[in-house]
Amino acid sequence: MKPLTAYTAADWCRLRPLTHFLKSTRYRMVDRRYLQLPARAGDVAALQQLIRGKKILITVAFSDPQAIDWQARLIRRHVPGASYLIADNSPDEASATAIAALAAQHSVPYLRLPANPWHKGSRSHGIVLNWLWENLIRPGEPEMFGFLDHDIFPTAPDDPFAALATQDFYGVVRTAGAGWFLWAGFCFYRFAGVRRKKLDFGQDWFNGLDTGGGNWRRLYRFTDRAALREAATTFAPFKPGISVEDGPIQWVGPWLHEIGMMGRADLTPEKRQFVANLLKEHLEHAQG
After folding, report:
1. Sheet order of strands, 179-190 included
2. Residue 268 contacts by C-beta under 8 Å, 6 or more apart in sequence?
3. Taking Cα atoms as reference points, which of 74, 239, 60, 224 lies closest to residue 133?
4. Do strands 248-252 and 233-237 pair parallel, antiparallel, or not at all (unpaired)?
5. Phi, psi of 186 (to 5 degrees)
6. Over the stretch 199-251, which tens digit does the pLDDT of each residue have?
7. What pLDDT was estimated at residue 7?
8. In whole angstroms, how large is the CA radius of gyration of the chain?
9. Are 95 and 22 in contact (CB under 8 A)?
10. Closest C-alpha to 251, from 215, 226, 278, 228
11. Which H or E run contains 23?
12. What is the chain's percent helix, strand, coil content, to nearest 5?
Protein backbone atom coordinates (compact mmCIF):
# COMPACT_ATOMS: atom_id res chain seq x y z
CA MET A 1 0.00 0.00 0.00
CA LYS A 2 0.98 3.66 -0.25
CA PRO A 3 2.72 5.55 2.57
CA LEU A 4 0.10 6.96 4.93
CA THR A 5 1.18 10.51 4.10
CA ALA A 6 0.23 9.90 0.45
CA TYR A 7 -3.46 9.48 1.25
CA THR A 8 -5.69 12.54 0.91
CA ALA A 9 -8.43 13.64 3.28
CA ALA A 10 -10.94 12.23 0.81
CA ASP A 11 -9.11 8.88 0.91
CA TRP A 12 -9.34 8.81 4.71
CA CYS A 13 -13.05 9.63 4.59
CA ARG A 14 -13.56 6.64 2.30
CA LEU A 15 -11.37 4.46 4.56
CA ARG A 16 -9.02 3.71 1.67
CA PRO A 17 -5.92 3.30 3.90
CA LEU A 18 -7.78 0.57 5.81
CA THR A 19 -9.11 -1.22 2.73
CA HIS A 20 -5.70 -1.03 1.04
CA PHE A 21 -4.07 -2.45 4.17
CA LEU A 22 -6.53 -5.35 4.34
CA LYS A 23 -6.19 -6.15 0.64
CA SER A 24 -2.38 -5.95 0.79
CA THR A 25 -2.34 -8.27 3.79
CA ARG A 26 -4.52 -10.78 1.95
CA TYR A 27 -2.33 -10.62 -1.15
CA ARG A 28 0.81 -11.29 0.93
CA MET A 29 -0.81 -14.25 2.70
CA VAL A 30 -1.87 -15.85 -0.59
CA ASP A 31 1.56 -15.24 -2.08
CA ARG A 32 3.38 -16.78 0.89
CA ARG A 33 1.27 -19.94 0.70
CA TYR A 34 1.87 -20.21 -3.04
CA LEU A 35 5.65 -19.99 -2.66
CA GLN A 36 5.56 -23.15 -0.54
CA LEU A 37 3.75 -25.27 -3.14
CA PRO A 38 5.67 -27.84 -5.23
CA ALA A 39 5.84 -27.73 -9.02
CA ARG A 40 3.25 -29.88 -10.77
CA ALA A 41 5.84 -31.23 -13.22
CA GLY A 42 9.61 -31.02 -13.54
CA ASP A 43 12.51 -31.79 -11.22
CA VAL A 44 13.24 -28.48 -9.48
CA ALA A 45 16.37 -29.77 -7.71
CA ALA A 46 17.82 -30.99 -11.02
CA LEU A 47 17.00 -27.67 -12.68
CA GLN A 48 18.74 -25.79 -9.86
CA GLN A 49 21.89 -27.70 -10.72
CA LEU A 50 21.35 -27.20 -14.44
CA ILE A 51 21.25 -23.40 -14.22
CA ARG A 52 24.11 -22.96 -11.74
CA GLY A 53 26.67 -20.49 -13.05
CA LYS A 54 24.87 -20.07 -16.39
CA LYS A 55 22.98 -17.37 -18.21
CA ILE A 56 19.38 -18.53 -18.12
CA LEU A 57 16.31 -17.21 -19.96
CA ILE A 58 13.02 -18.24 -18.37
CA THR A 59 9.81 -17.82 -20.33
CA VAL A 60 6.44 -17.97 -18.58
CA ALA A 61 4.16 -19.99 -20.84
CA PHE A 62 0.42 -19.42 -20.74
CA SER A 63 -1.85 -21.54 -22.94
CA ASP A 64 -0.14 -20.73 -26.24
CA PRO A 65 1.88 -23.69 -27.59
CA GLN A 66 2.46 -22.01 -30.96
CA ALA A 67 4.16 -18.99 -29.35
CA ILE A 68 6.39 -21.29 -27.29
CA ASP A 69 7.34 -23.28 -30.39
CA TRP A 70 8.33 -20.10 -32.23
CA GLN A 71 10.20 -18.64 -29.28
CA ALA A 72 12.18 -21.81 -28.56
CA ARG A 73 13.33 -22.09 -32.17
CA LEU A 74 14.28 -18.42 -32.51
CA ILE A 75 16.11 -18.19 -29.19
CA ARG A 76 18.17 -21.25 -30.11
CA ARG A 77 19.16 -19.51 -33.35
CA HIS A 78 19.60 -15.92 -32.20
CA VAL A 79 20.58 -16.13 -28.50
CA PRO A 80 22.95 -19.12 -28.48
CA GLY A 81 24.91 -17.93 -25.44
CA ALA A 82 21.98 -18.42 -23.08
CA SER A 83 20.17 -21.46 -21.70
CA TYR A 84 16.40 -21.47 -22.09
CA LEU A 85 13.78 -22.86 -19.72
CA ILE A 86 9.98 -23.04 -19.99
CA ALA A 87 7.99 -22.32 -16.82
CA ASP A 88 4.42 -23.26 -17.63
CA ASN A 89 1.62 -21.23 -16.01
CA SER A 90 -1.12 -22.65 -18.25
CA PRO A 91 -4.32 -23.29 -16.30
CA ASP A 92 -5.67 -25.97 -18.67
CA GLU A 93 -4.36 -29.49 -19.10
CA ALA A 94 -4.52 -29.50 -22.90
CA SER A 95 -2.19 -26.50 -23.26
CA ALA A 96 0.18 -27.80 -20.59
CA THR A 97 0.39 -31.19 -22.30
CA ALA A 98 1.10 -29.59 -25.68
CA ILE A 99 3.75 -27.25 -24.25
CA ALA A 100 5.45 -30.08 -22.36
CA ALA A 101 5.59 -32.05 -25.62
CA LEU A 102 7.15 -29.08 -27.43
CA ALA A 103 9.73 -28.72 -24.66
CA ALA A 104 10.69 -32.35 -25.11
CA GLN A 105 10.78 -31.96 -28.90
CA HIS A 106 13.15 -28.98 -28.63
CA SER A 107 15.17 -30.52 -25.74
CA VAL A 108 14.24 -27.56 -23.51
CA PRO A 109 13.94 -27.94 -19.71
CA TYR A 110 10.31 -27.78 -18.61
CA LEU A 111 8.65 -26.92 -15.33
CA ARG A 112 4.92 -26.79 -14.69
CA LEU A 113 4.20 -24.25 -11.99
CA PRO A 114 1.75 -24.82 -9.11
CA ALA A 115 -1.91 -24.13 -9.77
CA ASN A 116 -2.25 -20.36 -9.68
CA PRO A 117 -4.59 -18.79 -7.09
CA TRP A 118 -5.02 -15.64 -9.19
CA HIS A 119 -6.99 -15.39 -12.41
CA LYS A 120 -6.04 -11.87 -13.52
CA GLY A 121 -3.02 -11.78 -15.81
CA SER A 122 -0.78 -9.33 -13.98
CA ARG A 123 -1.22 -10.80 -10.51
CA SER A 124 -0.99 -14.36 -11.86
CA HIS A 125 2.24 -13.46 -13.66
CA GLY A 126 3.82 -11.75 -10.68
CA ILE A 127 3.22 -14.61 -8.25
CA VAL A 128 4.89 -17.16 -10.54
CA LEU A 129 7.94 -14.92 -10.99
CA ASN A 130 8.25 -14.78 -7.21
CA TRP A 131 7.90 -18.59 -7.05
CA LEU A 132 10.68 -18.96 -9.62
CA TRP A 133 12.90 -16.52 -7.72
CA GLU A 134 12.46 -18.29 -4.38
CA ASN A 135 12.38 -21.91 -5.53
CA LEU A 136 14.60 -22.04 -8.60
CA ILE A 137 16.80 -18.99 -9.11
CA ARG A 138 18.00 -18.17 -5.60
CA PRO A 139 18.97 -21.75 -4.74
CA GLY A 140 20.20 -22.40 -8.30
CA GLU A 141 22.57 -19.41 -8.37
CA PRO A 142 22.89 -18.74 -12.10
CA GLU A 143 25.43 -16.20 -13.28
CA MET A 144 22.61 -14.16 -14.82
CA PHE A 145 18.90 -14.68 -15.34
CA GLY A 146 16.09 -13.09 -17.31
CA PHE A 147 12.33 -13.33 -17.63
CA LEU A 148 10.50 -13.27 -20.97
CA ASP A 149 6.87 -13.12 -21.99
CA HIS A 150 5.99 -16.14 -24.13
CA ASP A 151 5.07 -14.00 -27.15
CA ILE A 152 8.30 -12.06 -27.61
CA PHE A 153 10.61 -13.31 -30.37
CA PRO A 154 14.19 -12.40 -31.39
CA THR A 155 14.45 -11.70 -35.11
CA ALA A 156 18.23 -11.18 -35.21
CA PRO A 157 21.26 -12.17 -33.11
CA ASP A 158 21.19 -10.47 -29.72
CA ASP A 159 22.73 -10.75 -26.26
CA PRO A 160 20.24 -9.33 -23.75
CA PHE A 161 22.73 -10.00 -20.95
CA ALA A 162 25.48 -7.78 -22.40
CA ALA A 163 24.47 -4.69 -20.42
CA LEU A 164 24.94 -6.62 -17.16
CA ALA A 165 28.69 -6.28 -17.56
CA THR A 166 28.34 -2.79 -16.07
CA GLN A 167 25.01 -2.83 -14.16
CA ASP A 168 22.96 -5.23 -12.05
CA PHE A 169 19.79 -5.23 -14.15
CA TYR A 170 18.60 -4.33 -17.63
CA GLY A 171 15.36 -4.24 -19.57
CA VAL A 172 12.41 -2.13 -20.66
CA VAL A 173 11.66 0.52 -18.05
CA ARG A 174 8.11 1.55 -17.19
CA THR A 175 7.22 4.51 -15.01
CA ALA A 176 4.33 5.37 -12.72
CA GLY A 177 4.50 8.67 -10.88
CA ALA A 178 7.84 8.90 -9.09
CA GLY A 179 8.36 5.14 -9.35
CA TRP A 180 9.73 2.98 -12.13
CA PHE A 181 10.38 -0.69 -12.74
CA LEU A 182 11.45 -3.20 -15.38
CA TRP A 183 8.67 -4.67 -17.50
CA ALA A 184 8.33 -8.31 -16.46
CA GLY A 185 8.26 -9.57 -20.06
CA PHE A 186 11.85 -8.50 -20.85
CA CYS A 187 14.03 -8.06 -17.77
CA PHE A 188 17.51 -9.36 -16.90
CA TYR A 189 19.57 -9.50 -13.71
CA ARG A 190 23.13 -10.22 -12.62
CA PHE A 191 22.58 -12.71 -9.82
CA ALA A 192 25.52 -11.54 -7.70
CA GLY A 193 24.05 -8.03 -7.69
CA VAL A 194 20.60 -9.04 -6.41
CA ARG A 195 21.10 -12.32 -4.52
CA ARG A 196 20.74 -10.70 -1.09
CA LYS A 197 17.71 -8.60 -2.04
CA LYS A 198 14.19 -9.55 -0.97
CA LEU A 199 12.92 -9.22 -4.50
CA ASP A 200 9.22 -8.92 -5.29
CA PHE A 201 8.20 -9.32 -8.93
CA GLY A 202 4.55 -8.79 -8.12
CA GLN A 203 2.50 -5.64 -8.42
CA ASP A 204 2.53 -2.58 -6.21
CA TRP A 205 -0.90 -1.76 -7.53
CA PHE A 206 -1.93 0.96 -5.07
CA ASN A 207 1.15 2.91 -6.16
CA GLY A 208 0.31 2.33 -9.83
CA LEU A 209 3.10 -0.20 -10.48
CA ASP A 210 2.26 -3.27 -12.57
CA THR A 211 3.96 -6.70 -12.56
CA GLY A 212 7.56 -6.26 -11.43
CA GLY A 213 6.71 -3.00 -9.68
CA GLY A 214 7.10 -4.57 -6.25
CA ASN A 215 10.84 -4.22 -6.80
CA TRP A 216 10.65 -0.41 -6.91
CA ARG A 217 11.00 -0.11 -3.15
CA ARG A 218 13.28 -3.13 -2.79
CA LEU A 219 15.72 -2.57 -5.64
CA TYR A 220 15.18 0.11 -8.26
CA ARG A 221 14.80 3.19 -6.06
CA PHE A 222 18.40 2.76 -4.90
CA THR A 223 19.67 3.13 -8.48
CA ASP A 224 20.38 6.31 -10.41
CA ARG A 225 18.21 5.78 -13.46
CA ALA A 226 20.16 8.39 -15.42
CA ALA A 227 23.22 6.12 -15.23
CA LEU A 228 21.27 3.03 -16.30
CA ARG A 229 21.38 1.54 -19.77
CA GLU A 230 17.78 0.75 -20.78
CA ALA A 231 16.37 -1.36 -23.60
CA ALA A 232 15.01 0.83 -26.39
CA THR A 233 11.39 0.09 -27.27
CA THR A 234 8.69 1.30 -29.64
CA PHE A 235 4.99 0.51 -30.11
CA ALA A 236 3.04 0.48 -33.38
CA PRO A 237 -0.24 -0.86 -34.77
CA PHE A 238 0.25 -4.16 -36.57
CA LYS A 239 -1.49 -2.82 -39.69
CA PRO A 240 -2.42 0.56 -41.19
CA GLY A 241 -5.76 2.14 -40.41
CA ILE A 242 -6.06 1.12 -36.76
CA SER A 243 -4.84 2.71 -33.55
CA VAL A 244 -2.01 1.32 -31.46
CA GLU A 245 -4.52 0.54 -28.71
CA ASP A 246 -6.64 -1.57 -31.08
CA GLY A 247 -3.81 -3.79 -32.33
CA PRO A 248 -0.45 -3.10 -30.71
CA ILE A 249 2.88 -4.73 -31.35
CA GLN A 250 6.12 -3.80 -29.60
CA TRP A 251 9.72 -3.81 -30.77
CA VAL A 252 12.49 -4.13 -28.20
CA GLY A 253 15.59 -3.82 -30.35
CA PRO A 254 15.35 -6.88 -32.66
CA TRP A 255 12.75 -8.58 -30.43
CA LEU A 256 9.12 -8.56 -31.63
CA HIS A 257 6.48 -8.62 -28.90
CA GLU A 258 3.05 -9.63 -30.13
CA ILE A 259 1.29 -8.26 -27.01
CA GLY A 260 -1.32 -10.98 -27.27
CA MET A 261 -3.28 -9.83 -24.20
CA MET A 262 -3.98 -6.34 -25.51
CA GLY A 263 -6.02 -4.87 -28.34
CA ARG A 264 -9.37 -5.68 -29.90
CA ALA A 265 -10.36 -9.32 -29.52
CA ASP A 266 -11.77 -9.45 -33.06
CA LEU A 267 -8.34 -8.50 -34.45
CA THR A 268 -6.42 -11.15 -32.49
CA PRO A 269 -6.44 -13.86 -35.24
CA GLU A 270 -5.33 -11.33 -37.86
CA LYS A 271 -2.54 -10.07 -35.63
CA ARG A 272 -1.33 -13.63 -35.01
CA GLN A 273 -1.21 -14.16 -38.77
CA PHE A 274 0.76 -10.93 -39.16
CA VAL A 275 3.30 -12.18 -36.62
CA ALA A 276 3.44 -15.59 -38.33
CA ASN A 277 4.13 -13.95 -41.71
CA LEU A 278 6.81 -11.69 -40.25
CA LEU A 279 8.55 -14.59 -38.51
CA LYS A 280 8.19 -17.10 -41.35
CA GLU A 281 11.60 -16.55 -42.92
CA HIS A 282 13.32 -16.44 -39.52
CA LEU A 283 11.66 -19.70 -38.49
CA GLU A 284 12.67 -21.36 -41.76
CA HIS A 285 16.29 -20.44 -41.11
CA ALA A 286 15.97 -21.62 -37.50
CA GLN A 287 14.57 -24.94 -38.71
CA GLY A 288 17.50 -25.32 -41.08
Report:
1. 110-112, 83-88, 55-61, 144-149, 179-190, 169-176
2. 260
3. 60
4. antiparallel
5. -160, 80
6. 999 877 556 678 888 899 899 999 999 999 999 999 999 999 999 999 999 99
7. 47
8. 19
9. no
10. 278
11. helix 16-35
12. 45, 20, 35
